[in-house]
Amino acid sequence: MIRKSILLTFVLSLLVQLPVQGQEGLFTDEIGRKVRIPNSPKRIVSLAPSITEILFTLGLREEIVGVTDFCDYPEAALTRPRIGGFVNPSIERIVSLKPDLILGIRDGNRMDTIHRLSDLGFSVYVVDPTGFDGVVKTIENIGEVVRRREKSTEIIRTMIKKKEVVVKLTQSLPKPKVFFQVGSSPIVTVGRGTLGDELIRLAGGRNISENESGSYPVYGVETILSKAPEVIILSSMDTKRDYFNLMKMWRSWRELPAVKMNAIYVIDSNLVDRPTPRVVEGLEAMAKMIHPEAWGEKR
Q: What is the pLDDT of residue 119?
């Protein structure tokens, strides 16, 4: 009887050590890396504000054990432990948090950081959202790796429905020329292939820099005057900028069609720069700036 008890204890100890089927899965991240991720990660570190926002939108909270100093939305993100900067997070701080999943982004995080964390044995999944469809795909992928597929599907369905409404309301209207300013010293705009450029097109406008080869062209005032934008949208990405004076500066160029049409606006950069579910809110806001008449509004 004693021998049977000892044998049973031995067998049970072996079973405890065996990996449970489905305990972890092998995923291919958005830059082609194979990553093993545990089932339902419980300790997640986010290396970007957009990723943090997506995680909270998916219903995660306690599972998020580390975020960057720039993660400020939703408000609950401000309560999570900080790991340092977006480009230069503290490896030591991340290690101390003992994450079972780290989520990074190609456009912002250094690959050196990704490789160092991977070499230390952490599961590091990297996203690379490009354009509206890329944002949707990233939300789907993150939902998959954190096992929130149903919630991500719901979010995506809402985003696509809202986008389709905007496109339907504006697609038959004229395409006014739009200048979208994202930097002031020097003056920087969005070029072909950027999220901002796509949002302008989806909102029923035509980007004045759509034919530029660079992603973020630098323009002089003379060039902008020659392109004669009919709508000017200023991104709020620089929180120290005085938008009253910036708008006043543009309004001093009375020959600009945008000035004549009273079509100079400021938009929350977090709605149009961050690849998150809120990007569709940015699209709606931009569409109302470009085509207020589609919503029965006046400038």
A: 97
- Please check the confidence at residue 105 and state whether its pLDDT lies above 90: yes
**Please, are residues 206 and 176 in contact by the beta-carbon 8 Å criterion?**
yes
Q: How far apart are the first and last CA of the chain?
A: 89
Higher pLDDT, 116 or 3: 116
Q: What is the dihedral sign for C-alpha 209, 211, 216, 222? A: negative
> What DSSP assignment string belongs to 100-151?
SEEEEETTTS-HHHHHHHHHTT--EEEE---HHHHHHHHHHHHHHHTT-HHH
Looking at residue 48, its pLDDT comes to 97
Cα gap 226→143, rounded to integer Å: 46
Residue 78 carries which DSSP code?
Answer: G
CATH of domain 20-147: 3.40.50.1980
The answer to whether 50 and 57 are in contact (CB under 8 A) is: no
Domain limits of the chain?
20-147, 174-295
| Claim: this prediction has a pTM higher than 0.85 | yes
The per-residue pLDDT for 297 is 84
Judge whether residue 3 has pLDDT over 60. no
CATH architecture, range 174-295 = 3-Layer(aba) Sandwich (3.40)
Provide φ and ψ at 24, rounded to 5°.
-145, 155
Same CATH fold assignment for domains 20-147 and 174-295 = yes
Q: How many CB atoms lie within 10 A of CB 282?
A: 23
